[in-house]
Amino acid sequence: MIIKNTSTNHCLDRTSAYRSDEAWITEKLYDEKTHIIPVHNLNMLCTNTPDITAVYLTHKDFDSSADLINNCVFLGIYNETPCFSVDINTTELASKLCRLTGATFENFKSVATLLDTPSSELLALARFMSFWHSRNLYCGKCGHKTNRSESGHVRICQNELCKEHYYPNMDPAIIVLVTSGNRCLLGRQQNWKEGMYSTLAGFVEPGETIEQAVVREIQEEAGITVHNIEYQGSQSWLFPNSLMLGFSAIAKDESITLDTNELEDARWFSPEQIRSDPLVLPYQNSIAYTLITAWLENFD
């Protein structure tokens, strides 16, 4: 089973070489063609008339209170258009932008699957960068305040005797479609919507390879030993900062011993059951959905 990796279809040119070029960054930030994505309390500005659409602003939509140059992050260039995000730190400014655009700041998780793929990926990145900045305002080494640098991609401790640098980080996690003959193993967590099942997943622990993480997680959550582990693809999952590494694996046995602290239920499903049961699969842009549907294609 090899999944079709569509993550390279909508490539953002990060243009990282220009992040330290303050003149270039300023020029692009104040270019009228530039798209600026506002982030307020990790919520994203969207319209819903009639469809959910991301709102992109220009520098002219902000007053001086936004302090764009000190609150922005240069995301990159998409379709020859420079893209920035900016943190909206006051309710007053957020309300003003809502009145200006007729849009509202929405919980990104609730709209992510309704946006077009490029917008969803851009907004996810903007939201993640805002999340990262908000949690690195102070130096973890000496406790002094940190400042933005490199157009928002680095934070540096202000203490002259410290000057510690902080960079955005991702947490690797594995997600696995386990199969046994013509059945696959799916599980569900208690807080998921009714009837939803997905592939099993978990974080990679320190000192562990990703293959070791696959074996450990499936054993811990379902009591099943797996082998024939094959990498299938990856997906950035910025809720808040995970990199999902997709695998397939084959079970050595089918006897499930459930870890109820992790899962509410886990069971084996045949292709017919997945297609005919009132089963709710993960949303279509997720790697979990891709792993499941790629496996189903073997039984068409």
TrEMBL record:
It comes from hydrothermal vent metagenome. GO terms for molecular function: metal ion binding; NADH pyrophosphatase activity; RNA NAD-cap (NMN-forming) hydrolase activity. Keywords: Hydrolase, Magnesium, Metal-binding, NAD. InterPro entries: NAD-cap_RNA_hydrolase_NudC, NADH_PPase-like_N, NudC-like_C, Nudix_hydrolase, NUDIX_hydrolase-like_dom_sf, NUDIX_hydrolase_CS, NUDIX_hydrolase_dom, Znr_NADH_PPase. The keyword NAD applies. GO terms for cellular component: cytosol; peroxisome. One of its GO terms (biological process) is NAD+ catabolic process. Belongs to the Nudix hydrolase family. NudC subfamily. It catalyses: a 5'-end NAD(+)-phospho-ribonucleoside in mRNA + H2O = a 5'-end phospho-adenosine-phospho-ribonucleoside in mRNA + beta-nicotinamide D-ribonucleotide + 2 H(+). CDD domains: NUDIX_NADH_pyrophosphatase_Nudt13. This is NAD(+) diphosphatase. Pfam families: NUDIX, NUDIX-like, Zn_ribbon_NUD.
